[in-house]
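Let's sit down with a protein and look at its sequence and fold side by side. We need material for that, and I hope you will provide a protein of your own picking. Once you have written the record down, we can walk along the chain together.

***
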Amino acid sequence: MKCIFLYNPNSGKGKLQKKLNLVKKMLETKYDEVVIYPTQSTEDTVDRAKRSCTTYDAIIFSGGDGTFNDIACGVSECEVRPPLGYIPSGTMNDIAHNLGISTNLKKAVKTIIDGFTIHHDVGLINKRYFMYVAGFGTFTGVSYRTKQKTKKIFGKLAYAFDGLKDAAAPLVSHVIVQTEEQTMKMDVPLLLVVNSINVGGVPFNRYGHLNDGLFDIILVKRGVGNGLINILKLFTFGIGLKRITKHFVCLKSNDFTIEMIKPQQWTVDGEAGPIGKVHIKNLHGHLEIFVPQKKSHKKHLNS
């Protein structure tokens, strides 16, 4: 068996570079051949992942949530999709927390060596794939607006600095959400489509199911401060068993459209996405991912 290890040299604070030999030696206990490839850009990562599908028995990679999205975009297009092994090295690592994958390098590699996998849902927003979140509105642009250099210096605080700009003037949009069962029209300062427990480092969707073939569509209501208080309540108290509260509405669907009166930029897995109206679809169990054995049977991972 052989695998390829793709890594983002700019992810996190660049510490992985010093541990490449360790990663290679550990992976060689399972794979006869381990090819190491430093990715040069988003386009390079997507292309290399796509081309690796018919060449390798597993695609191992390291980076943050954006890198995971790049890998997913490349692999999801292929008919043959080998299992994915993730070694988190980003700033937030939301996807790693969702999957129960340790941010400790040795533990993450051991998860791959142990070989337990799940089949994970993937989203398709227009013609672009995503793993765990798509959204627009207040705070959503912070992840891609914040410069890599700033993140290396300040870590998670870098996002907080940028987010202060949005907090000062939340932008409210009139949206129309059309599912198979209903049409919802609302003024919202924030809309999120999630297949996730964590977003922005906050485990606010604790009852979420990652692989039930459905997305949670969260519409934050307009209120005090153009909805800023409702956004803060959402991330402070999270989503409970009630799907409609004083500060948000949560719908579930696997195939739906969302449009806004004034087109806005979407954020997709932390990166800049499409603008304006979108069609979103859930591809149930589309990717196979190595996870810790204790997590491979958890209800929120396999539903």
About this structure: The two ends are 30 Å apart (CA to CA). The longest strand covers residues 278-290.
